[in-house]
From TrEMBL, chain A:
Organism annotation: Puniceibacterium sediminis
Gene Ontology MF annotations: branched-chain amino acid transmembrane transporter activity
Subcellular location: Cell membrane
Entry keyword annotation includes Transmembrane helix: yes
Membrane disposition: Multi-pass membrane protein
Entry's Gene Ontology BP terms: amino acid transport
Protein name as it appears in the record: Amino acid/amide ABC transporter membrane protein 1, HAAT family /amino acid/amide ABC transporter membrane protein 2, HAAT family
UniProtKB/TrEMBL annotation, chain B:
Domain of life (superkingdom): Bacteria
Name of the protein: Amino acid/amide ABC transporter ATP-binding protein 1, HAAT family
Keyword Cell division: no
CDD domains found in the cross-reference section: ABC_Mj1267_LivG_branched
Membrane-spanning ranges: none
Source organism: Puniceibacterium sediminis
Length: 620, 259
């Protein structure tokens, strides 16, 4: 009983930081509609800034002062980010801003590394609260009790601010209808900036307040990000009580998970989320999310046409040139080109679902990594030949997509995105924690192609044929009745349903199709590398694909693979430098600001302006 | 003549408010029936129940004697009911003709087909339909740049692509210029006459209603207060009371019709 209580208290204490970060994310999303991927980074900054301040400021006042100051400083950094990075892209197409926030993650990561170094920092203990209290004979740190006491105050202050003050009224009004608030004479940009300050300050506060428990390290940003997403989704986007309750549930669950089911702690969190969303698709306290359907931001997509003869010839020439790589290039170019091709197919499969279907998935890596693991497991345990494994990979990934899609498509918009993320993380944690079968962190190794394809050159040609074929297949599907029906469901679900189209089923099929195509890419990936590790299922891998699709251009047909090729090539070049993340992050932010319609979209615009391309619309 | 649509005791409450209260009527084949009433009378609620967007709290809707209450919009559509929306809903990323083709593709049950090019399917038929509504010259324009009145006409073509037995039009002329309204309703009346389609529509513009409807029903506070020919409705004192001051409008319309 004593142990039980002690664990409950630990869970409650852990909930504090989680709640602060989650409520910040939720606020920012509610008002600005930005899914701030960089929120974990602000949390990390809070920890580092707080640590530095605690070195300087002495005593108990210094300790708590440092935490408050850290919150304010991080909030100000958030303001800088909002003004420099996000303001220019508010008018960009829906969800495009999240690419910018991903760039911010990379930049903050490297800046933190530059300033504070790679070593983990041990948090100082709180003056006056260094001891432990014995509750029913179990030791409970005093600081935990302090946290348990503080969190409700923060929650209450926030609740008061949002529900009782004038600023809160504006924030809530903006959450419901931004345009109307703007029309009533409220300066929207400053409201957004203010909310960003508050959200980031909360994240910073969360980071600083947990210093005595967890310290500061460079992995904190991604580590907390998933939990925060889960908390926000379980609680319901934009709901403060929901965020608090969910933070408590998740933290307590984690503590108990560690002691009773150490092999499934990570899985547990996502299982809870899936179960909650099965019964309440918009979270415990959330309302139906209409962001996705709230009118398309930016220009509507252009009608598509199959490529004419000149473009087809161009594609043929391009493919021939690619085919010449082994003859003209080095061994290294061959391997690099193989990598890029595989990544292009992966990105194109996401683009099909995201661009044509409007289904923003945050967890597409589930099917890439899933396909890779299916192939690797069959080779390892059944000694399946490569040819068969390459067929089983998409089948396995497709099957996973059928199941995952069935659950995820019950929600829409940002909840759909979060659910896909949760499933990807679920698969990741399964693979990671089920080491006996999957090798866990050590991965599965020694998975090589069949003898005939074992040379880099032959494998390159194999990849070229499959990937180019896959991309062309996806492209053809976009022009087929199925692709049209998918776009119809995206453009107007109401009209599509009133025209006999089962929109959910169409989207489900598209989800499975895209999953299977990602599985093809995953299968090829295993054989090109000879091994697979859990990071192929990671959140970062999903984000890679997502960013590539946005960078290439969502509202274009070729956005997926063009973005994939550029990103992978640039990344290959940049990773040779020490601070490559900084460079890549700045590059991403630059593209987002300068080319809000993505590479292909902006090139098309440029072509039209120069008169090289037909605008497709007669000037009446 | 046989009833295409039969509505029996249809009701819908939202809390204590009875938005539609025990409404019964039937629609004959080839009939152009107008449902009118002041704002908040329950017209759109009624429509949404007929189309399956909203579940009734009571009553039955029958299509050719077959019960369709409780079916989903897409299932009702499959049974041969076409509809146009009060606020237009078209596919903004497609061209005008592709919007109609999409409807034809669904009509021929080929939405899951992955082999052919969609833009080549049923194009001729789609152009014919666009010609019917006078949109053929705009067939290859991007749907997103159309004027509102043109979107309304496009929606009609989209609905007709399914060869509906019954056409439900929720305020088909809302937001159109007066001349366009008359033209669109004339077009609808022609289609009803030529193709034997039955049509139920709601409308605020009394000129349009009196000029074209074969029969008129008046809804007020969820209840049907009158159902009869144009002449009967025009002279119904209860209806005149509901449309306070609207009586002038009726006579104005009458004079116009006489002129």
């Amino acid at each position: 009983m004593g142990l039980f209580l002690a664990q409950l208290l630990t869970g409650l204490a852990n909930a504090g930081a989680l709640f602060m970060v989650a409520s910040g994310l939720s606020l920012i999303f509610g008002v600005t509609r930005i899914v701030n991927f960089a929120h974990g980074s602000f949390y990390m900054l809070g920890a580092y800034v707080g640590w530095t301040l605690m070195q300087v400021l002495p005593g108990m006042v210094g300790f708590w002062g440092a935490i408050l100051l850290a919150g304010i400083i991080v909030g100000l950094i958030g303001v800088i980010v909002e003004i420099c990075v996000l303001r220019p892209v508010y008018s960009a197409p829906e969800l495009f801003q999240l690419v910018a926030t991903f760039g911010v993650i990379l930049v903050i990561q490297d800046l933190t590394l530059m300033i504070w170094g790679a070593e983990d920092l041990l948090g100082p203990r709180a003056p006056g609260l260094k001891g432990i209290v014995r509750i029913m004979d179990e030791p409970v740190p005093q600081y935990d009790l302090a946290l348990i006491a503080i969190t409700p105050f923060v929650a209450f202050a926030l609740w008061y601010l949002i529900t009782k003050t004038r600023v809160g009224i504006l924030v809530r009004a903006a959450t419901q209808d931004r345009e109307m608030v703007g029309a009533l004479g409220v300066n929207q940009s400053w409201l957004f900036t203010g909310v960003f300050f508050l959200g980031c300050a909360l994240a910073g506060l969360g980071g600083a307040v947990q210093l005595p428990k967890g310290g500061a390290d460079l992995l904190m940003d991604f580590n907390i990000l998933t939990s925060v997403f889960v908390v926000v989704v379980i609680g319901g986007m934009g709901s403060l009580p929901g965020a608090y309750l969910a933070a408590v549930i998740i933290s307590v669950l984690n503590v108990f998970g560690v002691s009773y089911m150490p092999k499934s702690t990570l899985v547990l969190m996502f299982l809870v989320m899936v179960v909650v969303l099965m019964f309440r698709p918009f979270g415990l306290f959330g309302k139906e999310e209409v962001a996705g359907e709230h009118g398309q931001v930016g220009e509507p997509e252009r009608p598509i046409k199959p490529a004419g003869l000149p473009v087809r010839l161009l594609v043929a020439v391009g493919l021939v040139l690619l085919g010449l790589i082994p003859i003209l290039g080095s061994n290294f170019t061959e391997v690099l080109a193989t990598d890029i091709l595989i990544f292009c197919l992966f990105a194109a499969s996401l683009h099909f679902m995201l661009g044509m279907g409007g289904l923003v998935s945050f967890g597409h890596a589930a099917f890439f990594g899933g396909g890779a693991y299916v192939a690797a497991l069959f080779v390892t345990y059944a000694h399946t030949p490569m040819e068969l494994a390459l067929i089983l990979a998409p089948l396995g990934a497709g099957l996973a997509a059928v199941i995952i899609g069935w659950v995820c498509l019950r929600s829409t918009g940002v909840y759909f995105a979060m659910l896909t993320l949760a499933f990807a993380q679920l698969l990741w944690s399964l693979v990671f924690q089920w080491g006996d079968i999957t090798g866990g962190d050590d991965g599965l190794v020694n998975i090589w192609p069949s003898a005939w394809a074992s040379s880099n050159t032959v494998f390159f040609y194999l990849t070229l044929v499959i990937c180019a074929g896959g991309i062309l297949l996806l492209r053809h599907a976009a022009h087929s009745p199925f692709g049209y029906a998918l776009r119809a469901a995206r453009d107007s679900a109401r009209q599509a349903e009133a025209m006999g189209i089962n929109t959910k089923r169409i989207q489900w099929v598209a989800f499975a199709f895209a999953g299977a195509m990602a599985g093809v890419a995953g299968g090829l990936f295993v054989f090109s590398k000879g091994s697979v590790f859990p990071n192929e299922l990671e959140i970062a891998r999903s984000f890679d694909a997502l960013i590539v699709v946005f960078l290439g251009g969502v509202k274009t047909l070729s956005g997926g693979w063009v973005g994939g090729a550029s990103f992978e090539a640039v990344k290959d070049y940049l990773t040779r430098f020490e601070y490559w993340r900084l460079a890549l992050g700045l590059l991403i932010i630059g593209v987002v600001i300068l080319a809000p319609e993505g590479i292909v979209g902006s090139l098309r615009k440029l072509g039209e302006r120069l008169g090289v391309l037909n605008t497709g619309e007669d000037k009446r | 003549m046989s009833a295409v649509l039969t509505v029996e005791h249809l009701s819908r409450s939202f809390g204590a408010i009875k938005a539609v209260d025990d409404v019964s009527f039937s629609l004959e084949q080839g009939e152009l029936l107008a449902l009118i009433g002041p704002n908040g009378a329950g017209k759109s609620t009624c429509f949404n129940m007929l189309m399956g967007q909203l579940k009734p709290t009571g009553g039955v809707v029958k299509l050719n004697g077959e019960k369709i209450t409780g079916l989903l919009p897409r299932q009702i559509w499959r049974k041969g009911v076409g509809r146009t929306f009060q606020i237009t809903a078209t596919y903004s990323s497609m061209t005008v003709v592709e919007n109609v083709q999409m409807s034809l593709i669904s009509h021929h049950r080929r939405i899951y087909s992955m082999l052919p090019y969609a833009h080549k399917l049923y194009r001729t038929r789609a152009l014919e339909l666009l010609d019917t509504v006078g949109m053929a010259d705009q067939a290859d324009r991007h749907c997103a740049v159309l004027a509102y009145g043109d979107l309304k006409r496009l929606e009609l073509a989209v609905a007709l692509a399914h060869e509906p037995k019954l056409l439900l039009m929720d305020e088909p002329t809302a937001g159109m210029a007066p001349r366009e309204r008359i033209a669109l309703m004339q077009l609808t009346a022609d289609i009803v006459r030529d193709q034997g389609v039955s049509c139920l529509f709601t409308e605020h513009d009394m000129d349009v209603v009196f000029a074209h409807a074969h029969r008129i029903m008046v809804l007020n506070r969820g209840q049907l207060i009158a159902d009869g020919s144009v002449e009967e409705i025009r002279n119904n004192p209860q209806v005149q009371e509901v449309y306070l001051g609207g009586g002038m409008l009726f006579h104005a319309a009458e004079e116009k019709a006489d002129a």
